[in-house]
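hey all, quick one before standup. I had two proteins in the batch that finished overnight and I want to keep them in one place so we stop losing track of which output belongs to which input. First protein below, input sequence then structure tokens straight from the run.
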Amino acid sequence: MPVEESRAFGYWRDPLFVLCLGAYIVNRALIKPSLHYYSPLFHGHLDDTLTVPVALPLYLLAYRWIGLRPDDDAPRWWEVAIHLTVWIFFFKWFGPVILLKGAEDPVDAWCMAFGGIFAWAIWHVRMSRWRALPFR
């Protein structure tokens, strides 16, 4: 039985995506420029924590459009894990260490992983509640 539109994963219309994108934009456009001191939370860790809930829905929508994703279910654990692995490797190790000759920050990777696990849990709790409704 195909997933009904109202119960399908919303991709760019997903409430968690919209909320996290709003938080990202506010942080980048308003909070960071207005702070007169360095804040590890607002200057680095918040953006890392929001990576998965902001970026993954857009990637999954693109995969759906080109036929690499067979349905509109919530992101699966392995979809989150694969993207996290690639993003952490590229943005938190390869970029800083190899390309920029700097040092990686392991806290950034942990923040990104926490954001991914948290987002996956929210998506699956919400989707399981939709599936449990009697009028489905």
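OK second protein, same deal, sequence then tokens:
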Amino acid sequence: MTAKHFSVVAFSDEKGTAPVIGTALSIAIVFILAGLVSAVIFSGYADSFHKGSPAAKLTVYFSDDDSSLEFKHDGGDHLFFDSSSLSVIMDINGTSYPLNDSALGTLGVGDHRVLALNKSGLPAMKLDPEDRVSVKVVDYESGALIAKRDLEVKRQMVIKPELPL
């Protein structure tokens, strides 16, 4: 009996590797095409999902003479009060009053603006030291609360709205 010498190269089955490589390439092409198609189809949604609300550190307080609210931007994104998506709401003893905040314009870091209470759209009222007052800045587009500050009424305040000319 004679011994046969087997060579790995001689018995290599090259026919078996072609289908495996072809299948792997086909799967890779399908994943790439699926990614491209989904990127094109969902590109319109990307702006609304990834567009977050502005994040800012905002200080709000009554002016020294209690006739206005003062807004100081201490850091973060610009706040565009002249847009329809951003609003200032003043809660007085559980009642909410949206303020006419367009006079604040755009607040950037370090900016300081004053909003006169007589020109803010509040009705005529008196505020006493025991009244609970808070100011909220809300981004309606994202539904986020940007800032909320509880304010202390130090002495009686009288708000008399000015009539437009």
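Flagging for whoever picks this up: The radius of gyration is 33 Å. Residues 17-41 form the longest helix (25 residues).
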